[in-house]
Amino acid sequence: MSDYLVVFVTASNEEEAVKISKTLVEEKIAGCVNIIKNIRSIYSWQGKIEDDSEVLMIIKTRADLFENLEKRVKSLHSYTVPEIIAFRIKKGSENYLKWLDEVTR
Q: Which of 23, 29, 48, 67 is the most buried (most CB within 10 A)?
């Protein structure tokens, strides 16, 4: 089995998140993407404190696909600096991780 990641990516709206998510799954870069609507993000950008509504994508993939995933997200994303943060999965259901291997390349 491979090493696996959960990757967080925020987007400006659900439409953008769906476009990115479908592309990642169709291209077999990710096995699954959950989209959580209506999150509130407070952050510093270009010297100002911003307070925006966003959506969060929770992406499940293999570690060896991260570089490809990052490039693809950047090519599809409207943000100049999109949030792309990966967390290694230490443990998971053997059946789920086997499925993740099967649906990604």
A: 29
What token pair was written down for 68? 């490809």
Q: What domains does the chain contain, in order, with CATH numbers?
A: 4-103 (3.30.70.120)
Per-residue pLDDT of the chain (105 residues; tens, 9 = 90+): 579 999 999 999 999 999 999 999 999 999 999 999 999 999 999 999 999 999 999 999 999 999 999 999 999 999 999 999 999 999 999 999 999 999 999
Straight-line distance from the first to the last Cα atom of the chain, in angstroms, rounded to the nearest whole number: 13
pTM equals 0.95
Backbone angles phi, psi at 83, to 5 degrees: -75, 120
Q: What is the DSSP letter of 28?
A: T
